[in-house]
Structure of Probable acyltransferase:
Amino acid sequence: MYKTMIKKMPLLSLLVLLVISSSLVHSELLVKKQRFEMDNFVTFGGKTIKKVAVGFESYGQLNDKKDNVILVPHYFSANSHAAGKYHADDAQAGYWDAIIGPDKAIDTNRYFVISIDSLVNLNANDPTTITTGPSSIDPDTGKPYGLSFPVVTIRDFVNVQKAVLESLGIRKLHAVVGASMGSMQAIDWAAAYPDWVPRMISIVGTGQIDAWGSSLLEQWAIPIRLDPKWNNGDYYQSSAPTEGLTTALMFITQAALTPEFFKQMSDSPALAQQAAQKAALADINASPAIVTWLHQLAQKRVALMDANHLLYLVRANQLFIAGQQQDLKSGLQNIKAKTLFLPANNDMLLMPYLAQDAYQILKDQGKNTELLPLVGPLGHLNGVQLISQQADKIKQFLAN
Amino acid sequence: MYKTMIKKMPLLSLLVLLVISSSLVHSELLVKKQRFEMDNFVTFGGKTIKKVAVGFESYGQLNDKKDNVILVPHYFSANSHAAGKYHADDAQAGYWDAIIGPDKAIDTNRYFVISIDSLVNLNANDPTTITTGPSSIDPDTGKPYGLSFPVVTIRDFVNVQKAVLESLGIRKLHAVVGASMGSMQAIDWAAAYPDWVPRMISIVGTGQIDAWGSSLLEQWAIPIRLDPKWNNGDYYQSSAPTEGLTTALMFITQAALTPEFFKQMSDSPALAQQAAQKAALADINASPAIVTWLHQLAQKRVALMDANHLLYLVRANQLFIAGQQQDLKSGLQNIKAKTLFLPANNDMLLMPYLAQDAYQILKDQGKNTELLPLVGPLGHLNGVQLISQQADKIKQFLAN
């Protein structure tokens, strides 16, 4: 079926197919976004945000003892729509629908699964995202915060999640499971609140952002700052820095994929590779086919996104070190959870040495930890699109 | 000695040390830049450039039979200063001084070594670079070409080199040896003019740019186009797009290095990592230490560079396929040279599979070809800074 579809599909076919692949599995979950609000949230950096609102979704039923909770923090460009559909005819289910649902790896017949929109969520203009960040109205001025919004960290995402859980009467998790930036929240949860977290799964994840990662992340911020429309973050009354944001999305997409996948894409007839090369030889302003493809894909996504939010997400990631101590060893010292790391062996964004480092530290500390590789042509995105390959392992890890 | 120097050096210490490491070996070569001019150069794309001027340097003596010539095309951000010094007290020798000189791997007692500034050379404002590109004066208008300069290709670099060699009465090479973009010229030489090239060495090289490489290269072009000062390439009467160009240089530096090297850098006390993280938590406009380091390093380099030239270099690389046929197999079919590939095993820019692919095609075609890895913490830059590790192999390959 895949092959037939690919032939019939226009430009963007392959990645779109990948992005919507979860919907090919008929989702049995119907979900709705809920809203959580709190006053006077104090950030890890010591600043107060007077009003915080975030959205959340849940799948499955909270049991009477409230001890069947699995928290699923989301990745950089996602929101809390981890599984299910809002309406039966939605084109697309949540990003991990392949492993979250009745009888699936994260079994909603058994667990109460909850996912929460992060602070400074990238999809600030998406009506199904509820978040607080630089695009939110500052109650003191009645205008968007812009760059007056305080820097937030992965720990702040964790602390807002904790407030949401506590508002539901939850005092302990069964597990926390996250991919990429979701893995950062997962391991920071285990380090910051060890009594809450008996099980942690890190998928295409890391225990910290190193210098390489920090400057790679900066590559996504710089184009926004270069876009004259960015205007030091003050663009809510004028037009948004769409080209800068589109560029950032292009860079993110490339970093999340692999040379192997790009080769498959560019061999697709839809990309008209030869004609594009001819045009690129004739005109310095023409683009190679793969660049046009990345640009069009990014353009489709940016309308729902906010450029300042991307800058704040970049910063939250740049500051990440699980446990927030001087070094990672100290930060992981308090972890009580048994842990499972599933890095992708060809990940170009959070390279497998990062999960390996965290795993090795935990192992050296005598903790119950495991590491298994994810394979496939998608690199970092193996952790989202091809996660089913470890469904049995995840199910078994959660059951014990 | 290295350790003592590192301690005494300010910020930028480590990479600067690496960049100047060749000068720690006392160079015995004194060289001078020479000038070559030609009229009416017709590009691979079929456009005519009315006046072409390029600079070149040579090391060693051309013998009477003119058959002892080794051509060394340069990499992306370099010029023809491959070895030696212009003045005995120059701080820095040419980039490959470690392997070019009397009794060295490329022995100037034996060979006449020549290197030629490329068209659209990045260092257009460097007085020791002579090049023709968008910053040059168009004889038809008396003004800089800007984007009216035709797109040029690696083949055009090769053809200009061939004209220089022919002007010296040379009709055949002993060898062609290049790193990175220099390797592209080297293998294209072997494919385009097989009777000229009996030996070819490709260092951190490739036989073609694939889709991944093409869109990675585009990441260097986009920030320049986003900089409002770029003004569609028309900035020679106003101020240059320095921030866009600085960004491009930052991206290039990262791509040419490795996570391992970045970790070493950020552990250096000069980077004041902890203080920078604290500032980055307090202020969204502050930068992580590694970003500040990359930015400062790039800023020091851009004064001598031209932003349009970078766009044209990116395009020349995006269009590269050795032999300029439909596919690489056909392109390499005519090669008669024995070939040696030295990829770096941790190269993040031209990953080792690229050299491996070209090597495998040549092997399958029954040709004399070898591949050996370069090691070291510098990734792509192992091919420049740490090339001495294969000096014996290079010497022996050239002697037979």
